[in-house]
Amino acid sequence: MNLLYLTFQEDAPLYLGVTRKIRGQASAFQKLGYHVTYTLWNGRTFCFYGADSREVQIGQGRVMKQFFQIATDYVASHRFDVLYIRLDRISFDAVRLCRAAKRAGTRHIGIEIPNYPYLKDYARNLQYAEGLKARAVTAAKIAANIAGDRLSGGSLKGLVNGVVLYGNHADHFFGVKAINADNGIDTDTIPVVPQKQEGEPITMLGVAGTLWWQGYDRILRGMQAYRQAGGRHPLRFVLVGGDRTEMPDFLAQVKSLGLEKEVLCPGFQTGDALNRTYRTADVGISTLGCFRRGLTRCSSLKAREYAAAGLPFLYAYDDDSLTGKEPFALRVPNDDTPVDMERLIAFVERCRRQPDCSVQERTFAEEQYDWKAMMQRILVFLGV
Predict the structure, then answer these.
(1) What's the number of domains the chain is made of?
(2) Does residue 309 sit in helix, strand or coil?
(3) What stretch of H or E contains 139?
(4) pTM given for the model
(5) pLDDT by residue (tens digit) across 322-346?
(6) What is the CATH number of the domain that holds 272?
């Protein structure tokens, strides 16, 4: 059986977590017995990987419009048993693509929405526009995207078999049945970190591209509050990644809080470099700013990667895989309050005293976060 996993995701260091997810999903489909082709883009090249590898160059003009046309032409000339499409929002281009696939004989079509609800993300782009003209142009584009989403979404019913939502719960999406899914990982690719000893300085690790909804400023303000209250336990925060548009503000906050010696920003890391940084950490910091996107539920990839590494972690959202009683996970409020460092220190020390904490966490990740089981559930939902 042939499966096409269409994504319009840039293959760039800023989106390393996302592209790792896409490749993990594609690998899971393959393990389930499918001949899998999946797509990413880089520069002005739309790349097909897997069973039908190829690269298609585009010319001048609107990049995403051309990528959608390439994808539409491709599905129109190939017949797939399953077409799985990752979309940030619905558009008339996406509807035309699905119709072309149906006409070509594709039997099952599923759409994945990675951040639901998602319209707040588009409105946020306005803050980066400088000057009245730029703000007016950006506002017009945002309005057009939102209008396109609302108007085209109604065409999905009867065209796609189901919608997969990552984020808040919903049973339907534009009248199409929906399922809420959790992110997964390939645990075989993630080594386990060594467990630390009591009394050592505590290193917190954050790994992210886009920062605004990670809420790492809550860590910074918590560190400052702990110091001002006379706290003496050495604390350090290491940020791996960071969007270049947001890093100046983040670094300015680090300086304004007097945390230059306690906060390290090595930039983007992958492979052995990232594994070495993981080995220095005591606790991973998952997403702490879901409230900034209007989300209460999240399926954080980084939390799953921390778990696979046996690294205790902090989180601030509803996650169906977590009961709140796991000894290796500490939940904090989903709001703008500084993280309570006294509570975090007590959590880390408790994990350090538990000799099998890392092993227990790794086993949990292997049992709960396997991509193959998750994608099998989605295929069944789509009627495959």
Answers:
(1) 2
(2) coil
(3) helix 132-153
(4) 0.79
(5) 999 999 999 999 999 999 999 999 9
(6) 3.40.50.2000
